Amino acid sequence: MRNRILIILTIAILLISAGVNAQVNSSPYSRYGIGDINSQVLGRSFGMGGISYGLRLPFDININNPASYTAAPQNVFLFQVGIKNKRTDFSTETQRVSNYDFSFESINGAFKINKYWAMSIGMTPVSSIGYNVQYTDSAKLDDYTSYFTNTQTGDGGISQIYLGNAFTYKGFSIGINTAYYFGTITKRLQSYLDNSTYYSILEDSEDIKIKDFNIRYGFQYSDTISSKYNLTVGGFFENKSELKADFMKFSGQTITIIGAGTVTDTILNDTIQNGLIELPVKYGVGFSFVSKKMILGADYEKGFWSGKTFMQNEQEFLIDNYKISLGAEFTQDYASKEYFKTLNYRIGAYYGTTNLYLNETAIKDAGITFGIGIPTKSGTKVNIGFGIGQRGITNNDLIKENYYTINLNINMADQWFVRRKFF
Question: N or C: which terminal CB in the chain sees fewer CB atoms within 10 Å?
Answer without folding.
Answer: C
